[in-house]
């Protein structure tokens, strides 16, 4: 469905165009109008437009000047100029700007409908070409990845004194002038986990996450060894985080998205490519040792923790850890404030404790939302210094609660926009990482935020929407399985089939047969 903007300073013409065209028959879902260039440009800043119909002669800014700015905002916008001036210079300038058609007033209804339909056909053709190009690009990447994985398996699992013998595809190179560190990982699947019957899908999904985090960022290479475990070769230099830090960040997202823990072994940093095998072998040995089971005596764990930490520090950590859970954070906040009030500390010490908590929470707020710092902390300091202890408690609580609810509103807006973005771009390369970048928030924050707002992980939501679309295509079309996979954003047919079976209990072929033969 497409959106059209009509720009004309004469209301009779705007309304006439709005009412005379059978927009819905043309596949147009929304028609907006503007009486001047300024109003039109404001609409373009906040709305995804496909086609614009505009007059040339308008007050303040003419239609051609507006078109030039508009095409900078929306490069793919199809512009149709409507004018009462049969002037070659206007037509010539329109063409130089990239205007798609130049129609003289009074406008013939049939000709205008034909012109709009032609532009819609162009949009559909461009979208199809883009999809095909993306599919071809993903296919080439997959082929390169498979070829490279074979080389990496040889490098890590076979005894070769000269790694240059390994045939590495020319299009994929190891980074120069850096060290290497190898990690071996596999998910720990409990007996009652939903992944028990879908281990291969889980492995492929987690491997895909590492490819997005490591390979796509030119930080190393991910592959599977002969046992099916995930292996990551990290580049190590002054600019990059070490393997432990990168895996730790991804582990939090994996916990949210798949509800599994990872068993892992990490080898030492080695100096050159020829020593990668040594790092791999040590990682394999560490990988073989499972983590000790969790302490089931929760009270003992809490007692030990209390012995090591100051009570206020514990409450502060709990408040920060509950940053995305407003009600829990508020409960811990009340306990923190009460602890300060009843501890018998001096007024100046109480101020310091309140400021310590507020600044830590404010920093977390800035870090996760991407907002710029303002002067509110300085205002809080002044407030604490000029009020008694009772009011200091009140103002500290107000400061933090306001941040909580501001964040909560932003959370909802971000996820609402993310779901719209996902639903429009199911054929594209959608991941937690690309979406977090799109909406300018930290990856771990986005992952936790999405699950809290939607009740399911971001990856789970994307998969569910893709499978819904795949079910529709399998029912109404004759596309082959690999073609359906491509249409819903999977460049690996095997990966698609595993995901489809997990969500429907049937393979794509079985599902299609069931739809065609319901009995």
From TrEMBL:
Alphabetic keyword roster: Cytoplasm, DNA-binding, Phosphoprotein, Transcription, Transcription regulation, Two-component regulatory system
Phosphoprotein is among the record's keywords: yes
Pfam entry (one): HTH_18
GO molecular function: DNA-binding transcription factor activity; sequence-specific DNA binding
Domain HTH araC/xylS-type, residue spans: 416-514
InterPro entries per record: CheY-like_superfamily, Homeodomain-like_sf, HptR, HTH_AraC, Sig_transdc_resp-reg_receiver, Tscrpt_reg_AraC-type_HTH
Source species, domain of life: Bacteria
PROSITE patterns in the cross-refs: HTH_ARAC_FAMILY_2, RESPONSE_REGULATORY
Coiled-coil region list: none
Gene Ontology BP term (one): phosphorelay signal transduction system
Subcellular location: Cytoplasm
PANTHER family: HISTIDINE KINASE-RELATED, TRANSCRIPTIONAL REGULATORY PROTEIN HPTR
Protein name: Stage 0 sporulation protein A homolog
Species the sequence originates in: Ruminiclostridium cellulolyticum (strain ATCC 35319 / DSM 5812 / JCM 6584 / H10) (Clostridium cellulolyticum)
């Amino acid at each position: 469905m497409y959106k059209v903007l009509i720009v004309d300073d004469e209301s009779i013409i705007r309304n006439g165009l709005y009412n005379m065209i059978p927009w819905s028959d043309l596949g147009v879902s929304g028609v907006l109008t503007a009486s001047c260039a300024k109003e039109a440009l404001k609409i373009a800043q906040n709305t995804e437009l496909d086609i614009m119909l505009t007059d040339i002669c308008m007050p303040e800014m003419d239609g051609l000047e507006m078109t030039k700015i508009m095409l900078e905002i929306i490069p793919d916008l199809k512009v149709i100029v409507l004018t009462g001036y049969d002037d070659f210079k206007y037509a010539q300038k329109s063409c130089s700007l990239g205007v798609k058609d130049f129609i003289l007033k009074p406008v013939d209804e049939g000709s205008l409908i034909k012109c709009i339909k032609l532009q819609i056909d162009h949009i559909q053709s461009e979208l199809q070409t883009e999809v095909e190009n993306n599919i071809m690009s993903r296919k080439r990447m997959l082929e390169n990845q498979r070829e490279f994985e074979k080389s990496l398996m040889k490098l890590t699992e076979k005894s070769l004194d000269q790694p240059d013998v390994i045939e590495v595809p020319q299009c994929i190179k190891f980074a120069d002038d850096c060290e290497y560190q190898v990690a071996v990982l596999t998910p720990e699947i409990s007996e009652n986990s939903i992944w028990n019957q879908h281990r291969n899908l889980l492995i492929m999904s987690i491997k895909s996450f590492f490819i997005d985090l490591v390979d796509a960022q030119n930080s190393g290479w991910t592959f599977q060894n002969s046992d099916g475990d995930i292996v990551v070769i990290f580049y190590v230099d002054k600019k990059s985080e070490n393997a432990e830090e990168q895996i730790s960040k991804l582990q939090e997202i994996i916990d949210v998205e798949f509800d599994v823990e990872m068993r892992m072994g990490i080898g030492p940093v080695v100096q050159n490519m020829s020593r990668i095998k040594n790092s791999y072998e040590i990682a394999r040995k560490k990988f073989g040792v499972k983590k000790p089971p969790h302490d089931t005596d929760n009270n003992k764990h809490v007692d030990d923790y209390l012995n090591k930490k100051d009570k206020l520090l514990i409450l502060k950590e709990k408040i920060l850890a509950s940053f995305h859970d407003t009600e829990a954070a508020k409960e811990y906040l009340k306990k923190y404030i009460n602890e300060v009030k009843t501890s018998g500390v001096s007024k100046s010490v109480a101020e310091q404790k309140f400021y310590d908590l507020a600044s830590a929470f404010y920093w977390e707020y800035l870090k996760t939302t991407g907002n710029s710092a303002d002067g509110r902390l300085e205002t809080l300091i002044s407030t604490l210094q000029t009020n008694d202890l009772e009011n200091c408690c009140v103002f500290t609580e107000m400061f933090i609660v306001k941040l909580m609810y501001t964040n909560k509103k932003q959370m909802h807006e971000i996820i609402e926009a993310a779901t719209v973005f996902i639903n429009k771009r199911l054929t594209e390369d959608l991941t937690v990482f690309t979406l977090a970048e799109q909406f300018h928030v930290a990856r771990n924050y986005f992952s936790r935020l999405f699950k809290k707002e939607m009740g399911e992980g971001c990856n789970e939501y994307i998969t569910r929407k893709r499978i819904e679309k795949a079910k529709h295509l399998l029912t109404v079309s004759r596309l082959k399985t690999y073609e359906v996979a491509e249409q819903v954003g999977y460049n690996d047919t095997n990966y698609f089939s595993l995901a489809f079976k997990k969500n429907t209990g049937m393979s794509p072929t079985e599902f299609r047969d069931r739809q065609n033969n319901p009995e």
